[in-house]
Amino acid sequence: MRRSAFLSLLPTLLSLTHAQTTESLVVTAAQIAQSIKLSLPNPSLVLVPQPYYWWQSGIVNNALFTYGFVTGDKQFEDLAKNTLYNQATGANDFMMPEATGNDDQAWWALSALTAVENGVAVPAGSPTFLSMAQNVFNEQKARWDESSCSGGMRFKIRAGDAGYEYKSSIANGLFFQLAARLAKLTGDADARAWAEKTYDWITSTGLIDAAFNVYDGTDAASGCVDLNTNQWSYNVGAFLYGAAVMASQTGDKKWVDRTHGLLEAAQRNFVRDGALYESICEGRGTCNNDQVSFKGILARWLGATAVELPDLKNTIAVMLRPVSGQVQRSWAPSLGPMQQFVALESVNAAIRASGGVAAAFGMIGGSKTVVKRKARRSLAGRIVWDA
């Protein structure tokens, strides 16, 4: 579609929220991405404002990369790329002071891997995004803990930190997904073996059960015999996409079956009335600053799974169509950064599952002006945004 033709159709497209056209989804995604950009305290870095956490900046950075390759609108690519370099540390491993947990570090490694997978250019003389992801993977391999429970990743990195004795599904799920994606990207047999080993360990503990429910974690100090059976949407998402990547690269039926099972668990446990739903906290309005972002992560990996295993695309598209429709009806620039992240990932995923990525390419124009920027002020040397 020519740019001039698109601009002439923009008012019509904005009214087609119920039709769920690729065009209307792209317009919505553009609006949300621009609003996220305008909410950043430092406009040159994808670092979300307090009270949100550093790891959440990593997932927002990933979302802006994803938006770019889904829609073809690359206006945020340099911002996301520069943020990776800014947060990489001298060792190019994302071990910033905020990286107290294995998952904290891994979120940034996955953002770097998304850049690699989608051909983001590396400046001359700069470390590659692949090397960053590999550095994190190699460091986390060394943290695999055989001293308790016959293996597994601990939630925290440093002994003595609160949560060090906890072996969490998210730390293991991100390590599993990182290994699976590196194996596919590079052909590294060692990474593939680590993905197999991690999944085998998580099922041996019961953290993924026979129905593919994914539980939150277990206590290493007690030998991992007691499970925390809370279910959070991002845990099943991490294993869902990792399993899909293993299925696509190995062709092994067990990975196809696991992907199907995890998808069914995601739909069973985290979809309600046509929306993604964080069942533990959302109904009571108690989701904290971590938990409010989880279902956006699930949405991302639903969309990625639809692309990875095309046989599941229709199932996931049907699942995501009402989700993205609700986003289109309810999204507003006044939402907080994590609510906007969830909205963007939901729409990104719906575009991917619809198979409309190619049609969306180059369609952005004019929608950036829809968002009104908040007033900026300084508080104790830190830029904050008025409501």
From TrEMBL:
Where does the secretion signal sit in this chain? 1-19
Q: Could you tell me which SUPFAM superfamilies the record lists for this protein?
A: Six-hairpin glycosidases (SSF48208)
> Single GO molecular-function term?
mannan endo-1,6-alpha-mannosidase activity
Give the record's GO biological process terms: carbohydrate catabolic process; fungal-type cell wall biogenesis
The protein's annotated catalytic reaction(s) are: Random hydrolysis of (1->6)-alpha-D-mannosidic linkages in unbranched (1->6)-mannans
Q: Can the keyword Ligase be found in this entry's annotation?
A: no
- What's the EC number here? 3.2.1.101
Q: Which UniProt keywords apply?
A: Glycoprotein, Glycosidase, Hydrolase, Signal
Q: Which domain of life is it from?
A: Eukaryota
Record family assignment: Belongs to the glycosyl hydrolase 76 family.
Instruction: State the name under which the record lists this protein.
Output: mannan endo-1,6-alpha-mannosidase
Q: Which organism is it from?
A: Karstenula rhodostoma CBS 690.94
